[in-house]
Amino acid sequence: MTNETGRGAMAETLIKVEDVSHVFPAPDGGGEVIALEGIDIEIGRGEMVSLIGPSGCGKSTLLNVIGGMIAPSQGAALIGGARVRGPRPKEVAYIFQESALLPWATILDNIKVSLEFQKAPRATRDQVAREALKAVGLDAFATSYPHQLSGGMKQRAALARALSLRTDVLLMDEPFAALDEQTRMIFSEDLSRLLANERKTILLVTHSLAEAVFLSDRIFVFTSRPGRIKAVLEVDEPHPRSPAFMTSPKFNDLRNRLYELLRDEVLAAIGKDRQGLA
Ligand SMILES: Nc1ncnc2c1ncn2[C@@H]1O[C@H](COP(=O)(O)OP(=O)(O)O)[C@@H](O)[C@H]1O
Ligand SMILES: [Mg+2]
């Protein structure tokens, strides 16, 4: 099944999460925190999926397992059939909530440093970095420093850096969380447009129901901790998605269904936190 842009196709599995559970030692030294329990997921090449669930349900942990930053207590993540045993900068790029730009380097140099870390050929780094800045509309700010940019522009720069690495996989951990709502929605539109013609496989962690519906081919809804997959919602709509999609009945139906699925889990998570406080 392919849509007009080739995105959303489930032709070939690129990422597989097999029976992953993860346990952290509890912060007080005694006992443990079960962050994830029995996660089984398959993500197709070129698919855009969102992970949504209450705070502390293990979304970042799952992203870190796929990115090779955390070795799971049980089970495994596989990319392209190979078991993930550590970070793979040639295959996987990250965007975090904070842009994580180096404050003492220009925007252009920030991207070039990442390319250097990735061991991309020296001769092409400058051009690749400039193209990435152009793609996100920041070419006029190549020689600016992070502190000279707004929050939205910094995240745009972080997106340019991630795109410049030309990885198959992009992991985004609440990349819009620190931005105001209007900026977020514009950013989402940009992202939908930018990615429509790429066969990038994307995992997005978000708290925003609208963002999840607007951007995703599928949405994985998590339970409260220990995080398990509660439901998977499909969003059958071609990319790039227009602002008109956001006001359509289909969009609203999906968002309402998502809210219903999440509501109980958020209440359960709040209840657990309250017990922890008592
Ligand atoms: N490095 C760590 N050490 C101990 N506990 C952790 C660590 N990272 C996360 N946790 C705990 O694991 C649970 C899941 O965390 P996380 O994956 O960050 O959740 P989410 O991203 O869904 O908010 C939380 O209870 C959190 O406190
Ligand atoms: Mg998180």
Keywords:
single chain; 278 residues; alpha/beta; Rossmann fold; disordered N terminus; binds magnesium ion
CATH level-3 fold name of the domain at 1-91 and 203-278: Rossmann fold
- Please write the CATH class name of the domain at 1-91 and 203-278: Alpha Beta
Strand proportion, as a percent range, falls in: 15-25%
Oligomer: single chain
Rg over alpha carbons: 19 Å
Question: Helical segment tally?
Answer: 7
Largest sheet: 6 strands, mixed
Shape: globular
Under CATH, the homologous superfamily of the domain at 1-91 and 203-278 reads P-loop containing nucleotide triphosphate hydrolases
Name given to the CATH architecture of the domain at 1-91 and 203-278: 3-Layer(aba) Sandwich
Total strands: the figure is: 10
The helical percent reads 25-40%
Question: What is the gist of this entry?
Answer:
The chain is α/β, with parallel strands linked by helices. It is built from 7 helices and 10 strands.
Topology diagram in text:
Elements: E1 13-25, E2 32-44, E3 48-52, H1 59-66, E4 74-79, E5 82-83, E6 92-95, H2 107-117, H3 122-135, H4 151-164, E7 169-173, H5 181-196, E8 201-205, H6 209-215, E9 218-222, E10 229-234, H7 249-277
Parallel strand pairs: 3-8, 3-9, 6-7, 7-8
Antiparallel strand pairs: 1-2, 1-4, 4-5, 9-10
Helix pairs in contact: 2-3, 2-4, 3-4, 6-7
Describe this structure in words.
- The chain has 278 residues and is an alpha/beta fold.
- The protein has a domain at 1-91 and 203-278: P-loop containing nucleotide triphosphate hydrolases (Rossmann fold, 3-Layer(aba) Sandwich).
- The chain contains seven helices and ten strands.
- The strands form two sheets. The protein has a six-stranded mixed β-sheet, sandwiched between helices.
- Strand 1 and strand 2 (32-44) form a beta hairpin.
- Helix 2 (107-117) crosses helix 3 and helix 6 (209-215) crosses helix 7 (249-277).
- It is globular.
- It binds adenosine-5'-diphosphate (ADP) and magnesium ion.
- Adenosine-5'-diphosphate (ADP) binds at residues 24, 33, 35, 55-61, 225.
